[in-house]
Queue: 4 jobs
Job 1
Amino acid sequence: MIDNPEETSQRKIEHIMIAKRDDIDLSTTSSWFEHVRLLHNPLPDASFDDVDLSWKFLGYELKAPLLIEGMTGGHEATLSINRALAEAAQAEGVAIGVGSQRAALRNEDLVRTYSIVRETATEVPVIANLGISHVIGDEGPDNAKRAVDMIDADALAIHLNPLQEVIQPEGSVDFTGSLAAIRDVTRELDVPVIVKEVGSGISKEAAIVLKRAGVRIIDVAGQGGTSWSLIEGERSPEGSVRWVASRRFADWGLPTPLAVMEVSTLSVKVIGSGGVRSGLDAAKCLALGAHMAGAARPFFIRAVEEGSDGVRDELNKFIFEMKLAAFLTGSLTVNQLRLTKKYLLTGPLKTLANERHIFI
Ligand SMILES: Cc1cc2nc3c(=O)[nH]c(=O)nc-3n(C[C@H](O)[C@H](O)[C@H](O)COP(=O)(O)O)c2cc1C
């Protein structure tokens, strides 16, 4: 299913305007990462300079296991944002995704707002993006191939966003056939499929089903950061059914640290994202078992306000803190941080982990 290209493009701009506002970001209240504490090692038997965060992902050597999550493209005004994000990803050696490419599947003129990312970020993984509703049905595998070819992508991220679509006034609310579509696309594409949420998380139960369908990389995109319920709710009149529901469901979903722990018990690659606001949060994702950490809104804000220099500064801050957290837990490599369970859970996160039978 492909919708009206002008409408899609206009929606992109509205999303950008609303996503700039802090009141749609749940991490300003709680990201849940405050309930994860990494275990301090006061006796690191090494130099800080010995910490090596380099990491292989999708065939590339990254400077750190970090991903600028898929966000934008699809309107002329998004070209400069994507260029800034891509310049920074290339310069700092981290992976990058583009936003949903549905607009460009219909309107060729918009292709460059996405392909600028591959043109700029030539030596890091670039991830294509489509919503699940655009891979359901007969056209699904073809849409998926075109999205990948459009930007010569190293993987395709399919986003699951049922809450967002229902709150969105013009959303696609029929998800019948989702799993079969994911299975077909996974089989037919030459590049890996990443299945992601957009801020409500992926549970162990859902991940098991996805794994059976052939998915090998899951980006949990859990609750605790950007709330797409709140963003879409702002596009309906105050007091209307959707507006009221958007507030009620603002923090719906599985908190990111919990989702990371749950999905990491399976043999799939896990990307920890949703409310990751610092290198310390990113390090916590790795300590909980993730293979990569990702963030969207922190890089988006810096790109919009300051261009690529701002994004580079943010990435540097992330990577420094990831390295510091590794050092202070006595980990010299990403795998040492990932595999030794150097964390403690507190408060409601500990209660939820117990409820979900996660044995820490
Ligand atoms: C401005 C903006 C646009 C986004 N557009 C998309 C998109 O097109 N496709 C997608 O899969 N996720 C999209 N996302 C969701 C992010 O990839 C991510 O899953 C979510 O924002 C949670 O991460 P955060 O809390 O770090 O922002 C977007 C996020 C932002 C902030």
Note: Residues 104 and 110 are 5 Å apart (CA to CA).
Job 2
Amino acid sequence: MARKKNSSLIATKVLPFDKYELYNKAVQSPEDDVQFYLECYKEIRKGKKPITLREDFCGGGAISCEWVKLDKAHKSSGIDLDPEPMDYGRKNYISKLNDDQQSRIALIKKDVLSGGLPTADLAVAVNFSYFLFKKREILKKYFDNVYQSLNHKGLFILDIFGGSQCYDAIEDKTKHKDFTYYWDQQSYDPLTNEAYFEIHFRYKNKKYENVFSYDWRMWSIPELKELLIEVGFQDAKVYWEGSNRQGGGNGVFKQTDKGESCLSWIAYIVGIK
Ligand SMILES: C[S@@+](CC[C@H](N)C(=O)[O-])C[C@H]1O[C@@H](n2cnc3c(N)ncnc32)[C@H](O)[C@@H]1O
């Protein structure tokens, strides 16, 4: 599966490439992401436009940067525990914004499980980062924090992946111009739904193993919808990806009440305050 993946970073190794640059090229598509968030908000809120976006688990804050580029009124904040990717983002992404855009973005070192998250019209948690919360009560605490932080008519957008292939120990590889990206599904335990994944890169004919690793619980769409409703969201809608002619995802997500069984899928869940 997987065009988009990520989560907790492993110890910094001396690598002959910029791991965040390769990660960004391999798994992120922030320009498309912000366009989807905007359209989704306008669809659900009948044409009303969101102004403030908060990117939880922001890493380098690539989405926060694209949000302030999209409209002169937009403001964004990115939240992460780890200063390393945020410093990378300040140096490599935020520094490339103009002064006005820079004045409308802030990356903040904070635990999303702590209270007082910055208020927003849109909160997003993508690339499945919340999968690192394995206990229901902990994930519920995070969702409650998000609910409390959202403005009136706010939305919470999170992505999720699944499909029968996610339970197999397989390595998926994608060739890019200067490197190869590997998504390695090492283990899955049906008793706990916990799974362990690694990202490797091949660069200049050498494979660098375990550049990023992910120790996750595979949550399901109904579990997440139930939790969103439990913390107070009025509704939770699912946006399912359409297919291309080869049977892969086409990058177009539409709201639906019925999915389809497939080897690998990605969807968005939208919590409506
Ligand atoms: C690999 S990243 C995701 C980066 C980015 N969102 C993306 O799409 O690629 C997951 C991030 O979650 C952060 N993180 C983990 N637990 C967190 C928590 N409790 N509060 C805030 N950030 C957390 C990690 O430091 C890490 O940067």
Note: Residues 1-11 have pLDDT under 50 and may be disordered.
Job 3
Amino acid sequence: MSVSDATNASPVSTGDAEPPRLLSGAESILEALIDVDHPRKVAASRWAAEHLTDPSLAERDHSCTFWAEGWKRLADRGMFGLLADERHGGQNLELCAALLTIEGLGHGCRDEGLIFAMSSQVLTMQLTLQRFGSKDQQDRWMPHLLSGDAFGAFAMTEPNSGSDAYSLSTTAERTSEGYVLNGEKAWITMAPLADVFVVFATVNPDVGRWGITSFLVPGDTPGLIVGPNMPKSGMRTTPFANVRFENCAIPESARIGAEGAGASMFSSAMEAERGFLLASGVGALQRVLEDTVEFASSREQFGQAIGAFQGVSHPIAEIKLAHESARLLLYKAAALQQRGDASMMAAALAKLGASEAVLSGSLTSLEVHGARGYVTEYEVEREVRNALGGVIYGGSSAIQKNIIARLLGLPG
Ligand SMILES: Cc1cc2nc3c(=O)[nH]c(=O)nc-3n(C[C@H](O)[C@H](O)[C@H](O)COP(=O)(O)OP(=O)(O)OC[C@H]3O[C@@H](n4cnc5c(N)ncnc54)[C@H](O)[C@@H]3O)c2cc1C
């Protein structure tokens, strides 16, 4: 299903002109690291607050409804091309610059499910296609993904293979014309709308990760069956479903790269997801902090603003610490990748630090808001629900700690 089918959105004003491109190299990295109010981020936040504020958000959150018009606005603003090649209409930004934009969107847009869906497509599905897809595969899909006319999904997890991702059991059996897929993928972001899936399957279950191969499968391929949109605790505006493959025949040209190369493609995608998918969440955490400071400054009990009580002000100071720490970890991981340096440790630290910061900061905010934090009307509890998934997707916090421990040389 395409966005243009789902919305009658008219072209969106692009608002203020884009800020100047970042300085290149070390200065751009330093700017991103130290400037919490970096001009690129502020511009994206202002644009999002103006163009991605939707009065029906609370209702859509309740009914798990995706905002197709918001998606189209993101596409018209060029957000799906942040990291894409110019030949496909992308901006081909340096990583730190792209993340500043995504962080700004997370700060300015209260529909976190929308920005999560966008970042997920850009950082996992599109990056895999860009890095490893053939010219034909890229030319067929990238322009449509960038224009918002097509949705993409990334399907690795299975009902019996989550953290242990390489134990997947979806098979790709060789035929004279290509492959036949059989198996099931679970918890796939954007699956209910996806026009194209990056799918991981094994061509030989006996050789473990060396059999894992990736494929680009159009959503309308016979035998590809998408389950119903699954309601979930947070990010409820992001469509999410299981996908079954029942004798799903695909041509050889659907394969991405070589047979057996899928595990390294997945690993590359996971490093991007770990390092950067939380960028919008870090932006959202700053908004949560600002909302909390405002509330604690105006809400009075015992004859004074509650923010004057140390029992309230110190936890808020801790949100600030969590936010700045998460930002530093995020941009350090981005800086290393931007420079072409090894970033596995940095990406695991960024994922762990940012997801835990967003969760703990949102919980503190809820507590500071008292009953107003707990009831749906004030929309503070939504921030907590949205933060919950961050410690699971892209590898749970325990899995990030496993990676960190292994890189530290600990036994196990
Ligand atoms: C919002 C959301 C979006 C998602 N989107 C996608 C998507 O687009 N594509 C996709 O492929 N997948 C997606 N997923 C799936 C996600 O990648 C998996 O949920 C995740 O990898 C964890 O797998 P699992 O849920 O099967 O949990 P399990 O692997 O069963 O883990 C359950 C618990 O056991 C712990 N555990 C497991 N192994 C170990 C270990 N070795 N050491 C210590 N603790 C361990 C985990 O930390 C966790 O607490 C999404 C998930 C969520 C929540």
Note: The chain has a mean pLDDT of 93.
Job 4
Amino acid sequence: MAIDARFPLTVYGSSISYFTGKLENYFRLKGIPYRLQSLVARSVVKEKTGSTQMPAVEFADGRWMSDSTPIIEWFEAEYPATAVIPQDPLQRFFSLLLEDYADEWLWRPAMHYRWYYREGAHFASRHLVNEIAADVPAPAFIKRAIITRRQRGGYTTGDGISVDQVPGVEAIYRRTLEQLEAIFRTRPFLLGDKPSLADIGFSGPFFRHFGLDPVPAEIMRQEAPAVWEWAARLWNTRLQDCSGALLQGIPADWGPIFDEIGRQYLPYLCANVDAVTAGRKRFDANIDGVQYRGARWSKYRVWCLQQLRVHFKALASSDQVKAQALLEQYGCWEPLWRHGQLPIDAGFCEQLPFHVDAKMIEVYE
Ligand SMILES: N[C@@H](CCC(=O)N[C@@H](CS)C(=O)NCC(=O)O)C(=O)O
């Protein structure tokens, strides 16, 4: 990759953050130079990007970006030589679907394992206090308690996961491990002998959460060592050194993950659409037998659903026929189109990655 005046980038984020880890995996794979900076005033990030979310990226020329998915799309367009997004239109579409699923749905078990278990909350709150709140004038144990309370209130107990939902949420992780273990026992990356966008998508939950937090990491080491190995392999791979190729077509062993998307993620997105349409900031939803109560609405995730539709419509009609057949086979087609009109304002999220209109979930600062 040609090094230009925009580099090195500064990535503002935490070294235990889901999406910071995802973006770092992407930059490393692509050979894009960056340095991670954890301590920055949230007001500065908000002023530059419109949101306090992590990661935010600052170019040497002074421009800023936020939101890992559109950031990756932007870099892919700028630096197509070492492409991460597959060229094949069907592989591209289904990789984008997997990325969205890993970003938005595996977030649920990842946040649960980190903040529900005392070991996880202790590790993460301590790390975050040292990393981003060291200069806040208060005793460390109080800062840790405040962070833990905020994260639980925003993303676990406050997002529909109480004790009754714990087995269902943990089952998502166990099934994902089984699905990925079956794949990584046969090949090094999700789509063949070299990494692609699907690997980057799964690196979000796996690199800085499941592979790092004490409880899920131990489960992974014991039950899915090939997944453990893949997470490290991805971190240590540079596309410019890869001689391997991608598989042809959509691998059959992605099927159980699509099945999960059809039974869980897309129905959740539909329940979220109903909530946003009705103006309900909290909603109940029965997802595949798990009754979530008081989940938080997300306007951002309405946009995610809209984006999946946009990607589908961008396919040539012959590819749409093939994609539809696969989506129908795994129960994804009906929920993808269940709602005719989505409750989304014109122009919403259109300035991404240069300006953020909405966080994934609005949690108080
Ligand atoms: N869609 C965004 C999501 C970013 C995001 O939600 N990041 C988390 C940290 S991993 C965050 O900053 N949350 C904001 C908060 O908790 O206030 C992306 O892909 O970058």
Note: DSSP finds 15 helices and six strands in the chain.
